[in-house]
Specification:
The protein is mostly helical and 106 residues long. It has four helices and no strands. It has one domain. Belongs to the drug/metabolite transporter (DMT) superfamily. Small multidrug resistance (SMR) (TC 2.A.7.1) family.
């Protein structure tokens, strides 16, 4: 169940990050409210996941996969560029997450 909580926390993290950009400094009411729900939901679900997962694993995966999702969706929604350097960094993040999971770190 911890991994499901972690996936939900990641989704909320992505909503928070994208919403923070779209809220234009919290000047757009509805997007600002969605952003706040994103951060509260993310913290709530990561706290549930960390009941079982080591904080070093759960938090690292939460922030790194959340960052990956934010970059990909930022490119789709906000037309941000994904450069070769960004792709290399994505690969490093994914490698680290796979490494943590495959080494039985959780």
């Amino acid at each position: 169940m911890a991994w499901i909580y972690l996936l939900i926390a990641i989704a909320f993290e992505i909503v928070f990050a994208l919403g923070a950009n779209a809220s234009k400094g919290f000047t757009r009411l509805w997007i600002s409210l969605i952003t706040l729900v994103g951060i509260v939901g993310g913290i709530y679900f990561i706290s549930l996941a960390l009941r079982t997962l080591d904080v070093s694993v759960g938090y690292t995966i939460w922030t790194s996969v959340g960052a990956l999702g934010t970059v990909v969706l930022g490119a789709v929604i906000f037309k941000e560029k994904i450069t070769p350097a960004k792709l290399l960094c994505f690969a490093a993040i994914i490698g680290g997450v796979v490494g943590l999971k495959s080494m039985g770190a959780a």
